[in-house]
Amino acid sequence: MRPADLTPVARDVMKLPAGPGLVFASFIAAYLFNSLPWSGWALLARPDLVLVVLVFWAIHQPGSVGQGLAFALGLAMDVGDSMLLGQHALAYVIATYGAQVLRVRVLAFPILEQTLHVLGLFIGASAVVVLLNLLLGASLPGLAAMLSPALAALAWGPLTWILYLPGLRRMRRESAA
Amino acid sequence: MIREPPPFFHRGPSPLARLTFFALLAIATMIADHRFGALDAVRLSLSVLVAPLQQLAAAPATALGRIADYFSSQDRLLRDNEELKAKLLEYAADAQRAKLLQAEQDHFLSMTPARSRFATDGVLAEVLSYGRNPFVRKLVLDKGLTQAIKAGMPVIDGEGVVGQVTAVGTFTSEVTLLTEKDQSVPVMLTRNGLRALAVGSGKDGSIDVPFMPVSADIQNGDLFVTSGIDGTYPAGLIVARVTAVEKNAAYVFAKITAKPAAGVDNHRFVRILTAARPAAAPPPDARADEKRPARERAPAKGRRQP
Q: Which of residues 17-46 of A touch B (CB under 8 A)?
């Protein structure tokens, strides 16, 4: 039994929930980014924006984005990257769970500390994928693979700003009206 | 005692319960996909969903490539043209001889129930991308189920064998390269007909030839072609050239490294061999029952010796 979550999530302003359109569009954009023709070490270092967006919504909008969506997106990533079905699903579900557990704590911090929190989640997720592939007999990926979660964490700040913008604009419009 | 929260605070199962459920589901999915290959239908339908997104994402790079092609310098085109003309002349003689040999072979084959071991039909395919699985290098080609491509078909380029089709989508197919770990091709040394197995090493694009005795007659620069005994690769396709032979009396086997003849990185077009030869010819008796008179059976025995 969990008590209802009534903690104030932000200290500054109360934010309006993002519309389903924005959530959907952000996932599409992130998937497009992941599907760019990466190759070589750039592929290893590719920040997984789908995961960043997923963790973002799991933290900021836990009512609409959860582990079910994480699982589905993971499958989509596996199909897109032609990997064994389910490995990204597992990684995403675990990262989303981490986000759900940490969300109240993360939201109490400014962006820099938030970045460090989500960095841990991203490292965990990519460790899951690497471990699963090692189990399947792949050899250890190069050092560039360590760059991927770091770059993903770097995307956290800008992404927060971008995904807040529509909500902020709507709020301003509504307060002006 | 804690009372039930009012219904509008209900959120379904706890995150941990959800995690357990979805993690188990993911693991089950992996096992089903890896062990039983049971999810090909799921993969295929999902790939139809994500294919437009992937094409959209690949579009800018493709367009850039086209533009770069368009502005490629006159000079380079002229040089390429010269080279290609020279190559054409070089191959023309070979082609003539091949035609003659083909005719001869057809003639001989018409007398026995044996089938040709060599590749005939193929489909030209464009390389769309180099695959995005960082753990396994693959080529993605623009031909799929709609062109009757099947998993297992060999893929070649102008120089030799590139690999094998391992997964087929509706409009695309994936080729696992020869040099990938655990990809193996039965090969034959052109110089002396020695049979061997070429296995991808999985690193720096080279091929290992394991389990060859130290006494085996293999030298630097020897050429390996497919032997065709596996029923997947037709015979006579160039596979690799030996680059290093390390014979140490302390070990039972020699360490042989070869470099694949096909340049997988610098080709835009490859050829999928669709009519790879049938897996194993049926026993002569079974075939003979179809139409051949009984007296022709005898010479058919013991065919296919190299």
A: 28, 31-33, 35-39, 43-44
Q: Which DSSP letter does residue B33 get?
A: I
Measured distance CA(B83)–CA(B63) in Å, rounded: 27
**CATH number, domain containing residue B235:** 2.40.10.350
Side-chain-side CA neighbours of residue B125 (13 Å): 33
CB atoms B33 and A84 under 8 Å: yes
* Radius of gyration (C-alpha) of chain B in whole angstroms: 26
Q: What is the pLDDT of residues B25-81, one digit of tens each?
A: 999 999 988 887 777 788 888 888 888 888 888 888 888 888 887 787 788 888 889
Q: Give me the DSSP letters along B78-125.
A: HHHHHHHHHHHHHHHHHHHHHHHHHHHHHHHHTTSS----S----EEE
* B76 occurs within a structural domain: no
> Would B192 be classed as within a structural domain?
yes
What is d(CA B145, CA A53) in angstroms, rounded to the nearest whole number? 34
Q: What is the total count of domains within chain B? A: 1
Q: How far is B56 from chain A (nearest CA, A)?
A: 8
Q: What part of A 77-136 touches B (C-beta under 8 Å)?
A: 79-87, 89-90, 93-94, 97, 100-101, 132-133, 136
Residue B27, Cβ density class (10 Å: 0-12 exposed, 13-18 middle, ≥19 buried): middle
For the stretch A167-177, pLDDT in tens is 777 777 777 76
Strand, helix or coil for residue A8: coil
Distance CA B154, CA B269 (A): 14
Substitution target in B35, B132, B174 with the highest count of A β-carbons within 10 Å is B132
**A177 close contact with B: CB closer than 8 A:** no
Residue span of the structural domain in which B201 resides: 184-262
d(CA B234, CA B228): 5
Contacts with B164 (C-beta within 8 Å, 6 or more apart), sequence order: B152, B153, B154, B155, B175, B176, B178, B183, B232, B233
Alpha carbon distance B180, B135 (integer Å): 10
Q: What is the ipTM of this complex?
A: 0.82
Instruction: Please report whether residue B72 resides in a domain.
Output: no
If one counts every other C-beta atom within 10 angstroms of the C-beta of residue B107, the result is 9
Q: What pTM, to 2 d.p., does this model score?
A: 0.73
Residues 6+ apart with CB under 8 A from B6: none
CA distance B259 to A127: 33
Chain B residue numbers touching A36 (CB-CB < 8 A): 57-58, 61
